[in-house]
C-alpha cells in the first residue's frame, strides 16, 4: 500500500488532469492490500496457538476498533491545523506512509517457522475430496456475501439514516467502536474452544438483523440498532469465523505451505463479497426504488443466517476445528 501512497504524494498534481491516475492508484493499492493481507494471515497461522487464539483475536479486534476511532479524529485534527486542505491531505498521506513503513519493520521482527515448499493453488481450491475444507470454504463464501454489505454500504446507509450529519456520524462511530471494544473484551474473557461454534451461530443471527433493521428503518433508531447490535455481535461472529478458519488451515500446517490455503480462503471470501454486491446491484437495477434497495440489502444480509444454519447442520465437523488451532 505504501507504493500507492508514494505515487499519490509524487503525482497528486496530475490527478485533476486525468482519471487514469485514480484508476492506477486504485490498482497499485489493491495489489498491495492483497499482499499485505496474504502476509498477515499467513503469519497469523504460525504465531497463533490454541491456548492464545481467543486472546490474540480479541486483542486484534480491540486495537482495530480503537484505530477506527483514532484515525478519523487524527484526520480531523490535521485538516483543522492547515488552512490549505490539500496540504492537510498530503500530510495525512505522509503519516499513513510512515505507519506502513513502521508496519513493515515490525513484520520483519516476527519469527516463525513456515514450511518453505511450493504449493498448488489449484489443489488448495479443490473441495471435492476434503469434506472439512469444503464445508469451511462454503461457509467462507456465505460469510463473504453478507460481509459485502458491511464493506461497501453500511457506512453510507448509516450516514443517510441520520440525515447526513457529519458531527452525529462521528459521535455514533465512536460510540459503536466503544461497544465493539467492550464486546471483544467480554468475548476474550468468557469464550473457550468448546463454546466457539455455539457463540458463532448465535452471533450470526444478531449480526444479520443489524443490517436488516438499518435497511428497513433508515432513521436514527435503525442506525442505533445497527451500530449497537453489530458491535455487540461482531466479536462472536467475526472472531468465531476466524477461529474456525485458523483451525481448518492448521490441519495442513505441518505438511504444506499454508500460504496456499490462505490464498484459497481469500479467493473464496472475495467470491462471496462479489456475489453479494452483484446481487444488490442487480436487484436495485431491476427494482429502481428505495424499496428495491432495501429488499436487496435484507436479502444479502440474510446470508449470515444461511451461513450459521449451514454451520449448525455440520456442527460436529466445525466443533473439531478450534481444537486444531495449536
Secondary structure: elements and pairs:
Layout: H1 2-11, H2 20-47, H3 53-81, H4 85-108, H5 121-125, H6 131-161, H7 166-190, H8 196-216, H9 220-250, H10 259-286, H11 290-301, H12 303-313, H13 315-324
Helix pairs in contact: 1-2, 1-4, 2-10, 3-4, 3-7, 3-9, 6-8, 6-9, 6-10, 6-12, 7-9, 8-9, 8-11, 8-12, 9-13, 10-11
Structure description:
- The protein starts with a helix and ends with a helix.
- The longest helix has 31 residues, at 131-161.
- It has helices at 2-11, 20-47, 53-81, 85-108, 121-125, 131-161, 166-190, 196-216, 220-250, 259-286, 290-301, 303-313, 315-324.
- Helix content is 81%, strand content 0%.
- With 326 residues, the protein is mainly alpha-helical.
- It contains 13 helices and no strands.
- The radius of gyration is 21 Å and the shape is globular.
Tell me what portion of residues adopts beta-strand conformation: under 5%
Low-confidence stretches: none
The largest pleated sheet is described as: none
Q: What's the rounded overall pLDDT mean?
A: 78
How large is the radius of gyration? 21 Å
* Portion in helices: over 70%
Order of helices and strands: HHHHHHHHHHHHH
What's the number of helices?
Answer: 13
Shape: globular
Oligomer: single chain
Give the CA-CA distance, first to last residue: 31 Å
Number of strands: 0
Structural class: mainly alpha
